[in-house]
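User: Hi! I'm working on a homework problem where we have to compare a predicted structure to a textbook description. Could you give me the structure for the chain below?
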Amino acid sequence: MRSANWLTIRVTCVATLLAGATAAGLEIARADNASPRLKATATQPAHPILIRNEHGSLLRIEIDVPARQEVRATAFSFSLAGTDDLTDLDALALYACGDKLEFSPARPLGPAVSPGSTLTIRAELPLVTGKNVVWLSCRLTASASLAHRVAAVCTSIETTAGTLTPRDASPGSRLRTGVALRKHGDDDVHTYRIPALATTPGHTLLCVYDMRRRMGRDLQEDIDIGLSRSTDGGQSWQPPRVIMDMGEYGGLPQEQNGCSDPGILVDHATGEIFCFAVWMNGKPGKHQWKGDGSEAGYEIGKSAQFLMVRSRDDGLSWSQPENLTRRLKRESWWLLAPSPQQGINLADGTLVMPIQGRDDHGQTFATVMSRRNHGASWTVGEPATSDGNECQAAVLSDGSIMLNIRNDRERFRAVYVTSDLGHTWREHETSRRGLIEPNCNASLLAVDAQLAGAKRHVLLFSNPHTQKGRTQQTIQSSLDDGRTWPTSRHHLLDEGLGAGYPSLTRIDDDHVGIVYEGSQAHLVFQRFTIAELCAPAAEGK
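Assistant: Happy to help. Predicted structure tokens:
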């Protein structure tokens, strides 16, 4: 009996084990044959949506398809409830971009549609194994408010494998509007670069810039100085005009008579406007900042020349170029040129313009030039530092002048202060350690503003806020004369790759404007309230 019972127990145990193994095998088979789920993510990039752009990349959708699945997307649904005013939008459309994250309009998914608080766009899109990228793009109306923001959330995606609800990778994000002030090919100009922005006493905005006609390269090339003008705070801009063109001077072709790096200065007392630029004659293939692209002395064709044009009618008409080289440049210097920024007015009416150059040894430097009592003569200061060049001046609360300088030695801004119009300089406590940069022009603007019921002296600083490439275009604010720049008051304008070179100006009591070389256009204009730039930044708000 014990032997029979033992055998029964063994048979029962083996049967139980076999049954368990079979069940486990079935579960493994099911797991192997089950279809992993499709996943989708929607991301709103940090860059402006621009008036004059046919396409404004608003929302990127990534659909990840596992292997061994054949599936199609058939419809995409969106909410635009976070948009301030749907009448700012003219149309929206979808574009397939394969597995590339960058937006491209080459493959539209059906026709454009009209905006609505919710909308569904039907599209037949075969999905491949791996990543599938789709962009929602929008086009703004010409009257879209520069104070408004645009937002989109992808609420669902219909596929032949079921409905997906994308993960929102940028919750609460809303994109600012702006203006594509100048774009590639406008007026048959290849490239627009190096903007400087100013405001006249009549609240007219003037933006000067390089018109690089044949290609994107710097001097020596066929480059003229252009001007765009706005009388409504930057909402609309008049057709551009050329205000500095040296033609075929000396019998040389246009590409050997280029003008570049414009700086602009408005006399707030008289309304007179000055625009400065550097002119190269001859020297094909050379560059004024390298080697013998510019030489010591004054001779046209050897040393690059310091030119000026002026306007006395709010920027409507401009004088012929006046050559200031012999009046400003030391004969031993290899180069003297304007800094491509806006100059400033001191309380006593003195005009101050940031300038740059190469000294007796060919090293770069930065300083200022000044003019008192609306006179005809300008006085050039001593170099604040070597190994720096493009710079911007601003008045501090004690009346001294801060010079914020592109630093060729480290990826930190050089900062110097003068109390005697550049005859002597002292290094600021934050110099070479406080503000990072990728070696690029930047903008510094001082404004007095009412904040929380109190009058405050504010410094606004803008540059590509990185030490690597010209991305992360940002505006920062300081309430203590530039000693600190709290990260809570960093406002990101454009995360994408541009060329930087921002220029800030005060538009009126409450607003500032900026032009910069962004990822969405050669020259981008945006407008902000001073109060919001001085308040802690709210991500995407």
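For your comparison, note the following. Confidence is low (pLDDT under 50) at residues 1-35. Residues 39-174 form a domain with the Immunoglobulin-like fold (CATH 2.60.40.1290). Good luck with the assignment!
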